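Example complex used in Figure S2.
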Amino acid sequence: MYKKLFIPGPTQVRDEILQVMATPMIGHRSQDYADLQREVIPKLQQVLYTENLCFLSTSSSTGLMEAAIRNCSQKKVLNTICGAFSKRWHEITLANGKAADPLEVEMGQAITPEMIDERLKTGQYDALTLVHNETSTGVTNPLYEIAEVMKNYPDVCLLVDAVSSMVGIKIEVDKLGIDVCLAGVQKCFALPPGLAVASVSQRAMDRSAEVKDKGYYFDFHVFLKYYERGQTPTTPAIPQIMALNQQLDDILAEGLENRFQRQAEMAKFVQDWARQYFALYSDERYLSNTVTNVKNTRGISVAGLNEELGKRGAMISNGYGPLKEHCFRIAHMGDLTLDDLKWVTGQIEEILGL
Amino acid sequence: MYKKLFIPGPTQVRDEILQVMATPMIGHRSQDYADLQREVIPKLQQVLYTENLCFLSTSSSTGLMEAAIRNCSQKKVLNTICGAFSKRWHEITLANGKAADPLEVEMGQAITPEMIDERLKTGQYDALTLVHNETSTGVTNPLYEIAEVMKNYPDVCLLVDAVSSMVGIKIEVDKLGIDVCLAGVQKCFALPPGLAVASVSQRAMDRSAEVKDKGYYFDFHVFLKYYERGQTPTTPAIPQIMALNQQLDDILAEGLENRFQRQAEMAKFVQDWARQYFALYSDERYLSNTVTNVKNTRGISVAGLNEELGKRGAMISNGYGPLKEHCFRIAHMGDLTLDDLKWVTGQIEEILGL
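Predicted assembly (708 residues):
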């Protein structure tokens, strides 16, 4: 049975977009493809508020996290950690043989500019990783305040995982001076998975030019060589790029500010609902506009709830990792509407007899 | 205007498969996804004649070429080169900071077992890369004879790019002792691009366990960790995996031997046609069953020919790289039929007034 997705990725995809996925194929070295890519890139720059290069990577977001690490550090990386995905960035950094230190806070807490400042002062680091919106905990780190502090460290590349926030929460890449801002298209873009995108600054490109043993698949300078011809280095996920082109039109037609506002309204609704019937897991000061982590204060069976929801055509997520039965997560990102959230929370109330 | 693709990837995709690409999304950590992956893997093993692990990689084939290098060498790689894609493997090897030597023959020629034996005798190498079917030249290297020689070198991993041959030309992975056999789905599988697959032997997994600084995204042991749960390490290209599942059913329904036979018949037809009106570029002993490189003996404008074909709803490829106007390539792989090839060569005859 078909289930409407309220999980934090892959998100619910509209039928119009699914139909674009069924477009007949074109050659990736053809004029048709170059025309497509040259339509997509300026729109991507627009939604990211940037004039930086914007690369299309046939990989998940994790691939571009690896890319950011491989291209942007030759000294030591400071990996900020506030949940599962920011922890993964630390793992990736070490797996690539790069020197790295963790800066870790408890799950549900946020990374603050003060913590970062204190560590960067030591002068040991040439890159900092930050997950903007921790999908595992429903925390949005204070990116604008952190970016302000980063301006005091011009030799430290700011690498931002915006996987579950890009086009859902405002990120002005150029104003903030973000060197690599990456995301997969299956979250706030509301497309099927298989493609990741990143903006890459001149500073990141300059750093990359100095770094050795970057590999080939994720080398930003290999991307650049083909980018100028409106191409990617290797055969890309053409269906997802066609879908992205359509969706960027639809996002711009909705209006970015309207889109951010819609996510914020959905978030407020779900947060209020969670406060009424359960509690919020994460620090109230940093609640996410795209996903809410509800604390299972009633000791319900999260797996059982999801099974019942499945019968009614919906799916939410359990808590991440160790939080599996202690929390459940409701995503309110992408093309979902307030009515969708009212419906799914209504279903939960009915199932649990709240 | 819609063009039927006679290019060597992406290949023509049937409407039934395009419709599968439009399936509503499912979560990649859901039971539905695990069921899907557990359907796909045994069928993939069947078409590869292997009991090895078969991994699904959200990347192009180039990503898995990088994976093979990163996981399977800690000494020195011998990169056999007979065209653009085998040359890329040498580039990738060096870009990953691995020691490597090229073993190069002229474009249009094949790699022979004797050449390989002579180099491996030196005992310097722990991995050998081979492109089975060189898409850039239309040459199929003698994989069965090469695999025979490789049996004398049990410490050398045999890494095979079967990008434009897998499920188009018979490759019995286990019988041949291939350690990594990789391909993208947009060639002989006739699916939209965005997914690559590889079989990986126990020897390759053992080697990988010893190698350091493999990175995360292409680490075979990270793949294995999730494989056992019917999952991939990160969000995969779900639409392409759904399409692969359907297409594997269709391939097995056609029958593998029938499929190989169909490609061979199409190849023979195009080769005969090329001999009649032009000439063949590559060594007659090693002509490919999936793509033919036609030598432009008439000095026609290849770009002009393709433009005229475009108006009639078809697309072929020019010669690769330096061969751009000196050759043109007609692919006869995937779900194309002899009638399709008769039609497109007929169109070429009409356009050129042959």
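Chain B touches chain A through 58 residues (CB under 8 Å). The first strand of chain B starts at residue 4 and ends at 5.
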